[in-house]
Amino acid sequence: MAYEDPGAEVLAHAAETFGLLASPARLHIVWALAHGESDVTGLAERVGGALPAVSQHLTKLKLAGLVRSRREGRRQVYFVDAPDVVDVVRLAMDRLADRADRSDRADRSDRAVGADSVAGAVHPVARLRGL
């Protein structure tokens, strides 16, 4: 089966979106908003960030079209505006969590039988960065 490569514009937009989500803080904000709307104060408490920093991250996410906000009285309430991107984030996070769980179980199993070959193992993403 032959696949058609995406166009340059699609690739550029995808790289831009993934680049924006490469920040752990912004990824955490998108993750939090995927589970429910919130104002900036609630997000700052949930993600453990300073209010001005979370506000700046939200501005970037809004400019990218990933989140939107609406006014409720005196506060801005933020919500996800790109459910398809959230699906990708959820899938990636779930897979990475599963992989980490399997790795932790394997490490515990190796320690239980006295194997030390895993001690020098490097996370796959860290290996990629070294290329």
Descriptive report:
The two termini are 30 Å apart. With 131 residues, the chain is mainly alpha-helical. It has helices at 8-20, 24-34, 40-47, 51-63, 83-112, 124-129; strands at residues 38-39, 67-72, 75-80. Helices cover 62% and strands 11% of the residues.
Short description:
The chain has 131 residues and is mainly alpha-helical.
Topology:
Layout (H helix, E strand, L loop, with lengths): L7 H13 L3 H11 L3 E2 H8 L3 H13 L3 E6 L2 E6 L2 H30 L11 H6 L2
Antiparallel strand pairs: 1-3, 2-3
The percent range for helix content is 55-70%
**Distance between the ends:** 30 Å
What is the residue-mean pLDDT, rounded to a whole number? 84
Number of helices: 6
Q: Return the structural class.
A: mainly alpha
Strands ordered across the widest β-sheet = 1-3-2
Low-confidence stretches: none
User: Biggest sheet: strands, sense, closure?
Assistant: 3 strands, antiparallel
Shape: flat
- Give the radius of gyration: 19 Å
Please report which band the strand proportion falls in: under 5%, 5-15%, 15-25%, 25-35%, 35-45% or over 45%. 5-15%
Order of helices and strands: HHEHHEEHH
| Quantity of strands, as a count | 3
Keywords:
131 residues, mainly alpha
